[in-house]
# Entry
Amino acid sequence: MGLFGFFRPKSDVERLEQEAAANPTAASLTALAERYQAEGNAAQALATAKRAAERFPDSDRARNTYQTIRRLQMQGRIVDLQHRIAQNP
# Structure
């Protein structure tokens, strides 16, 4: 961190991480997971979404975010299995 690194504006991820650490709500954790997913950090997105779904089991948004991220990560395997089933039922 250089002399002017202190004045660098915080990125969305840094801001969301601080918000989720200070006040871990279903909304803040799912927003962070969605941001991780948008930036291509699949492992962090899945871990954050899973934590949100486990911590707030009654939250539809947390559950839907976890399911969506999980499905997107497994999409390649799903397509492969569909092709195998179509070729050899």
